[in-house]
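Kindly inspect this one:
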Amino acid sequence: MSIPKENADSAGMPRKGNRMKPNAKRTCIGVAVALFWIFSAICLPPVLAFLLFAVAVCLAVIEYTRLVQARGIPGVSGALVVATLVWLCCVFWGGGGAHLQTLFPLMLGCIVLALSCRVLFDSRIERPFETIAFAVLGFAYLPVCMSYLLCLAQMGDCACRGRLSAQGLYAVLYLVAVVKACDIGAFAVGTLCGRHKMFPRVSPAKSWEGLIGGIALSVLASLGLTLVAQRVSAGGIVAPLGLLGAALMGALLALLGVLGDLIESLFKRAAKIKDSGGLFKGMGGLLDTFDSLIFAAPVCYAILLWSLR
């Protein structure tokens, strides 16, 4: 579908003259929010760091339900927030990713049962299929995928239930830095020389030149952090990647970050909402901050876990 030039701003494609400022804000605030939680996890007791993370994920879930409600589908934000808290608590106090294979089908079954009872007894819900489907999607999309940040933070020899390890926090720092490096590189290169639109139907401002620049900076960040990991005790989880593995991991995480950003942009366009939330002026919401980490976190956890074996 073509977008009229006069409506380009409202459709998410700012004119070249004013594109830099809002995008720069969004990128910088996204990096700041992610780094804030990492340093909070280092300085605060593990329980407080976990509570900050849980509140942020719950706010992102509420923003997701806002997108669903904009499509005329009854929201189930209360049920999703409760399910999110239960899931994150089970992951944090259950020892990270060790029990997810058992926990996930159990939680998913309970959610489907609870939602089915809700639509059965609530006569106001006229679209039960869509209500249940979007709620299950929201549970898998946000709390499940984002919980792998907790799984990463609990990796390492010193980690245990309800605790975070130094090696795990370095792995989280590695993930966030590599993914957000793609955002920064894509923005810088795309602003300077972006000519060929990558996905104009979903995100008109993204270009293939920006994607190449983002991947290049992510690979450099991955190599640098892997070299540091090989020289510090806290890098024991990232160090086994090696330089070739680090380069491949950087490129993969960059692509997953872009994919997460595009899918969240697709959701917003389907809901006809420019920003998922308004927590930060000029940034949008926490869902806009987390979008590039949603798919990268579980893949990063799986690869680092495999590299340790």
DSSP finds ten helices and two strands in the chain. Residues 1-21 have pLDDT under 50 and may be disordered.
